[in-house]
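Structure ticket #2291
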Amino acid sequence: MSLMTRPFPPPPLKIGDLVIDPPILQAPMAGFTNAAFRQMVREFGGAGLLATEMVNARGFVWLDENEAEHPDRLWGVADEPRPLAVQIWDNDPNTMAKVGKRLVEEYSVSVVDINFGCPVRQVTEKAHSGSYLLREPDRMFRIIDQLVKACAPTPVTAKIRLGCSRESVNCNEVARVVEEAGAAALTVHGRTAQDMFRGNADWERISEIKSHLRNIPLIGNGDLDSAEKVVAAFQNYNVDGVMIARACLGRPWLFAQAAAALRGDPIPPDPTLDDQRQCMLHHYELVRDRFGEEKGTVLMRKYACCYAQGKRGARHFRTHVARVATAGEFYQVVQEHFPTQ
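Resolution: structure written out below.
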């Protein structure tokens, strides 16, 4: 670990003219960070900037041209509190610029973020997008440059990984390209695309990137699953902000704990198991109100598994909740099988 002399508590994060305080961001996660989840995070507090699921830019254009409803992943975006980032992905600069302009003009989003980090094969090998583009810095430049021009003055940011593989780590070069193209901030996940989510995030590598940026902030992402780790990231590594991802999915109170730790306040304890159960049920109500009982119940299965993760009896609960199809079944399984200790 590279111990550094860093100001503490860290100052607010600036993305263009937008001030993010505290400098703790909620990661965009496909299939999870919809409006219901974002509301849960807001109710606990502590996140300086929230983000949508990643939106397929090409799919958005198709829906628009065919006068269909805009993507479910934009549910809630028009009306919810700001600041709010929307993350988009594709490999065509014109398509990305067109969608970015719409997000700014019609949805008044606070930040347009570009996904250059998704390692999932459907996005990389099939669509030549996400982390696939790390092998094409010139195309990344064109995408960012056109999007920045289309979205001005709304800031455009980029999220990357260290590289496509451990043999082709090129995050330093890519960081320079991102800044030169006009992006207002860079977020780096400390793994390669090849790693997926295996092993540990390399915060040393993330920290080294800072020396390759002149003016824009660096946001670190990976393995931040406690308030103590958030504090350590700021104290020990050269980052201006942090992004919390998978660890928050069943713990929307994690941001509030991290924010308290950064202020130097006592870290609030986790809610009691009974309170966590009630939190999950409230989350279910938000999902069901939007998607209806059938679709909402199926969608809630994965969230319910996240809420139970790490608790005694979690596997038993997952086995039962994975089969629920109605509200009655969901409430019964929660009552009978959600961990109690």
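Closing remark: The domain at 13-263 is CATH 3.20.20.70 (TIM Barrel).
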